Amino acid sequence: MKKEILTLAFARAVFVEFLSTLIFVFIGLGSALKWPSALPSILQIALAFGLAIGTLVQALGHVSGAHINPAVTIAFFVGNQISLLRTLLYVLAQLVGAIAGAGILYGVTPAITRGNLAINELNQNITPGQALVVEIILTFQLAACIFASTDNRRSGVGSPALSIGLSVTVGHLVGIYFTGCSMNPARSFGPAVVTRRFSSVHWVFWVGPILGACLASLLY
């Protein structure tokens, strides 16, 4: 473990997790901003999040694995795929990257358009328990897709970037109505820090994705 942290490859991987999460959060949240002249559609937001992930996995997956998500990183640790040290530094890099991405978006967006910076919020008609179940299910299918599409034991995995991007897209097509769709604690954490708006149900966007991803890891 000590040797791992001293390598250039390890440092590059941690930096890539920071950078890729920054870009993902900037693009994803940016697609959900409410410009006076053109309000975003659910399809637009879902495609932006999905295409961003697919692009980043294709571009940077060979460097770090392109987790871009603390829940995914923790699930890889639970599945004994990565070390504890890599897990901790990846998660830290992802959280800092999410804050940076949300902060940059906040800085370049007109005040009239920023709103709440697309933070995750529960639909007023659902309970925290219901929201938790939604986040568990959505993140389970994402993590299962990631494990399946990157499994060297399988001969026909297809394109991981395409599969994972579509998984994120379909999650948003459903989840936006319930929770704004997190599936990623970093995505929820970044804008909450920048806008200083931590609701009493912010825990849902940590517990749900982590439980869903870890369940997929244990079953796969």
Automatic annotation (TrEMBL):
Coiled coil: none
GO terms, biological process: carbon dioxide transport
Intracellular or extracellular location(s): Apical cell membrane; Cytoplasmic vesicle membrane
GO annotation, cellular component aspect: apical plasma membrane; cytoplasmic vesicle membrane
One Pfam family matching this protein: MIP
InterPro entries given in the database record: Aquaporin-like, Aquaporin_5, Aquaporin_transptr, MIP, MIP_CS
SUPFAM superfamilies assigned: Aquaporin-like
Record field: catalytic activity: H2O(in) = H2O(out)
Protein's membrane topology: Multi-pass membrane protein
Function noted in UniProt: Aquaporins form homotetrameric transmembrane channels, with each monomer independently mediating water transport across the plasma membrane along its osmotic gradient. Plays an important role in fluid secretion in salivary glands. Required for TRPV4 activation by hypotonicity. Together with TRPV4, controls regulatory volume decrease in salivary epithelial cells. Seems to play a redundant role in water transport in the eye, lung and in sweat glands.
Similarity remark: Belongs to the MIP/aquaporin (TC 1.A.8) family.
UniProt name for this protein: Aquaporin-5
Record lineage: Eukaryota, Metazoa, Chordata, Craniata, Vertebrata
